[in-house]
Amino acid sequence: MRRAVLADTGPLYAAADPDDAHDARAQRELKRLARDKHVVFPAYPTLAEVCTLVLRRLANQVAAGWLNDVVAGTALLDPTPEDYHAAMTKVLAFPDQPITLFDATLAVMGQRLGVEIWTYDHHFGVMRAALT
């Protein structure tokens, strides 16, 4: 049986950029996730965030190739309006933390779907998200 994992921006970007400090880690973890029969799903907001980073930091052609690979190779998940409202509440619940609406939305989706999140961001622990 395959298990879903929601992907955060950090690992997805690291896997796309061979010069990223976390690239080797991301590659190892992708292999481990595949070996353990996990399916990595990005949410649409995460896809937009990573695509923007790849476009700005690497190149137009790299971004287009990356986007084509992701769209062809995985299903994308769409947050619900309720996810966004819960994420806003979550951001406001931690005024001392620089938690982005991207991350809070992913944490809420993970909780709603009962899946772990693949991330390098410690703020997901603050939000009590299940991590892979």
In short, what is this structure?
The chain is mainly α and 132 residues long. Helix content is 60%, strand content 10%.
What's the average pLDDT?
A: 93
Number of E strands: 3
- The helix content, as a percent range, equals 55-70%
Q: Structural class of the secondary structure composition? A: mainly alpha
Structure description:
Helix 1 crosses helix 2 and helix 1 runs parallel beside helix 3. The two termini are 17 Å apart. This protein is 60% helix and 10% strand. The longest helix has 14 residues. With 132 residues, it is mainly alpha-helical. A 3-stranded parallel β-sheet has the order 2-1-3. The protein has 7 helices and 3 strands, in the order βααβααααβα.
How is the topology of this model organized?
Layout: E1 3-7, H1 9-16, H2 23-35, E2 38-42, H3 44-57, H4 60-73, H5 81-93, H6 101-113, E3 116-118, H7 123-126
Parallel strand pairs: 1-2, 1-3
Helix pairs in contact: 1-2, 1-3, 3-4, 5-6
Features:
132 residues, mainly alpha
